[in-house]
Amino acid sequence: MLPLLLEPADLAKHLGDDKLLIIDLSKPTIYVQAHVPGAIHLDFRRLQTGAQPAPGMLPDDDTLGDLFSELGLTADTHIVAYDDEGGGWAGRLLWTLDAIGHKHYSYLNGGIHAWLAEGHPTSSESTEPTPSDYEVGEHDPLTEVSLDYLLAHYQDPAVAIWDSRSEEEFSGVRAFAQKAGHIPGAIHYEWTEPMDKQNNLRLRPLDEIRTELEARGITADKEVICHCQTHHRSSFSWLVGKILGYPTLRGYAGSWAEWGNHPDTPAEKSE
């Protein structure tokens, strides 16, 4: 069983393993130049509906079933996901899998940047998957959260809302919805803060990240709900929380695109 946070050297030992499916969510131009041998490219846009006003919503089960069948996923397949941006789209894939009850997955620490920096083998040949007949099972209710749920619980002291957007978005200086600002009481911790930009976008020391989150009030004893604008950036935040072992961790797919465009939602701006 591979760990959730997988180092490049450890993945290199398992290339070609049965039941291992490596998914590359990098830009197509990066994939055709160099990818992990055997990795299948996935267009990250297929992980969201793209429909306004909340384009980050999960596609329906039939659409996801078709997608994962096309990729060759089976019930006992272990997915390793990576990308070229430090984990945002890889995180979105792993959050999606978790939401539909598929719990066998790992994140390649640092993605393609770390893989290349360590000199592991690469391929420029496109890998074609062996299709499967994957049916989406019952969703895990502890992975997703709806607008109605968040409206009912955002003021609950046992809930921490982790806003992964930029400081400008959080404060209300920049807005990509009708309303600017943030959910009242939300805690800001920008999605790239856990990344080590001097170490090929690997995660910084986990104890440091944990200390920073706890100092802001994102603690393991709370129900932590992650969001950004479309639950792309915040999927990586969700993944970081998973790696840290936070027991109750959820993602809000509607994110600010839904909340900030809804007539009945409160918003506040930073002073």
Summarize the structure.
With 271 residues, the chain is α/β, with parallel strands linked by helices. It has ten helices and eleven strands. The radius of gyration is 18 Å and the shape is globular.
Keywords:
271 residues, alpha/beta, five-stranded parallel sheet, 11 strands
Give an account of the 3D structure.
This protein is of the alpha/beta class and 271 residues long. Helices cover 30% and strands 14% of the residues. It is built from ten helices and eleven strands. The strands form three sheets. A five-stranded parallel sheet has the order 1-5-4-2-3.
Spans of at least 5 consecutive residues with low confidence? none
Strand order of the largest sheet: 1-5-4-2-3
Helix-strand sequence: EHEHEHEHEHHEHEEEHEHEH
Helix content: 25-40%
* Total E-strand runs: 11
What would you call the shape?
Answer: globular
Mean pLDDT: 96
What percentage of the residues does DSSP assign to strands (E)? Answer: 5-15%
| Secondary-structure content class | alpha/beta
Largest sheet: 5 strands, parallel
Rounded to the nearest angstrom, the radius of gyration is: 18 Å
Instruction: Note the gap between the termini.
Output: 48 Å
Q: What secondary-structure arrangement, pairings included, does this model have?
A:
Layout: E1 5-6, H1 8-12, E2 20-24, H2 28-33, E3 40-41, H3 61-71, E4 78-82, H4 88-99, E5 105-108, H5 111-117, H6 147-153, E6 159-163, H7 167-171, E7 187-188, E8 195-196, E9 202-203, H8 206-216, E10 223-227, H9 233-244, E11 249-251, H10 255-259
Parallel strand pairs: 1-5, 2-3, 2-4, 4-5, 6-7, 6-10, 10-11
Antiparallel strand pairs: 8-9
Helix pairs in contact: 4-9
